């Protein structure tokens, strides 16, 4: 069975601090995809990144970076020098390589960046 | 428009009423998904279409929920005899190919409140 756990329900940081959002997943498939989505107060889910299970290379995009470790089944997301505009709910999601490829979401982490 | 659109954005229904929620995916996108997002939770999969074929409806919570995509483009999610537990945001997402390989683009959602 597939499962995504985001243990941090809410995080508050002061602007310019770095923050890491944790994600732990479970799947029996050897082929799967991991995603992060951002949901700002407007409600629309915004795609941030996709990684496949065969590519453990970490990725950096501007102030965002992702650390994928199969050994610990984790796909953590770090925001460097946080800004007020980063305030949102962040969801980690898993798509297995078989079936409908629908997304299984975690419960989300609400990030508040305090100016 | 360039993105996924949904209508109405807000719907208030009395318990027992039928509702219909519309999704216009990105033009040319083959895959279409419906998700239900309860307050404070991550989205949960309802059903999946590939073109006009409904390939997976395992997430529909009861036989009161019905979805269609007759011409492989616009999709409608219908809920019959609405109950209070149906109150949630209903999200539609589309993807250009098999979703495991491509990110899903989400619409703004329809917030359904059942009184």
Describe it.
In chain A, strands 2, 5, 6, 10, 11 and 12 form a 6-stranded mixed sheet that branches. The mean pLDDT of chain A is 92. Chain A is built from no helices and 12 strands. Chain A is 0% helix and 53% strand. Chain A is globular. Chain A has 115 residues and is mostly beta strands. Chain A has strands at 3-5, 10-14, 19-21, 24-26, 32-39, 46-52, 59-61, 64-69, 74-79, 88-96, 104-105, 109-114. In chain B, strands 2, 4, 5, 6, 9, 10 and 11 form a 7-stranded mixed sheet that branches. In chain B, β7 (65-68) and β8 form a beta hairpin. The model of chain B has no long low-confidence stretch (mean pLDDT 93). By secondary structure, chain B is an all-beta fold. In chain B, 0% of the residues lie in helices and 48% in strands. Classes of the chains: A mainly beta (115), B mainly beta (115). Chain A binds chain B through residues 4, 31-33, 35, 37, 42-47, 50, 91, 93, 95-97, 99-108, and chain B through 31, 33, 35, 40-45, 48, 55-56, 59, 89, 91, 93, 98-109, 111.
Kindly summarize this structure in a few lines:
Chain A is mainly beta and 115 residues long. Chain A has no helices and twelve strands.
Keywords:
A: 115 residues; mainly beta; six-stranded mixed beta sheet; 12 strands; globular; B: 115 residues; seven-stranded mixed beta sheet; four-stranded antiparallel beta sheet
Q: In terms of topology, how is this protein built?
A:
The complex is a heterodimer of chains A (115) and B (115).
Chain A (H helix, E strand, L loop, with lengths): L2 E3 L4 E5 L4 E3 L2 E3 L5 E8 L6 E7 L6 E3 L2 E6 L4 E6 L8 E9 L7 E2 L3 E6 L1
Chain B lengths: L4 E3 L2 E4 L5 E6 L6 E7 L6 E7 L2 E4 L8 E4 L6 E5 L8 E8 L9 E2 L3 E5 L1
């Amino acid at each position: 069975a597939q499962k995504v756990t985001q243990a941090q329900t809410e995080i508050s940081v002061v602007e310019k601090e770095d923050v890491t959002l944790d994600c732990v997943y479970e799947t029996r498939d050897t082929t799967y995809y991991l995603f992060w989505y951002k949901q700002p107060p407007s409600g629309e889910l915004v795609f941030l990144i996709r990684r496949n299970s065969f590519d453990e290379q970490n990725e950096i995009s501007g102030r965002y970076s992702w650390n994928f470790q199969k050994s610990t089944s984790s796909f953590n997301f770090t925001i460097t020098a946080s800004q007020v505009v980063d305030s949102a709910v962040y969801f980690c999601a898993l798509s297995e390589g078989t079936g409908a490829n629908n997304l299984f979401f975690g419960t989300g982490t609400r990030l508040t960046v305090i100016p | 428009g360039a993105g996924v659109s949904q209508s109405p954005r807000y719907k208030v229904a009395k318990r027992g009423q039928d509702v219909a929620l519309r999704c216009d995916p990105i033009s040319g996108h083959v895959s279409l998904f419906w998700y239900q997002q309860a307050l404070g939770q991550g989205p949960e999969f309802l059903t999946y279409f590939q073109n006009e074929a409904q390939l997976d409806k395992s997430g529909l919570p009861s036989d009161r929920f019905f979805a269609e995509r007759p011409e492989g483009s616009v999709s409608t999610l219908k809920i019959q005899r609405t109950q209070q537990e149906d109150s949630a945001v209903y999200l539609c997402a589309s993807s250009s190919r098999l979703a495991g390989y491509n990110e899903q683009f989400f619409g703004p959602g329809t917030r359904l409140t059942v009184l």
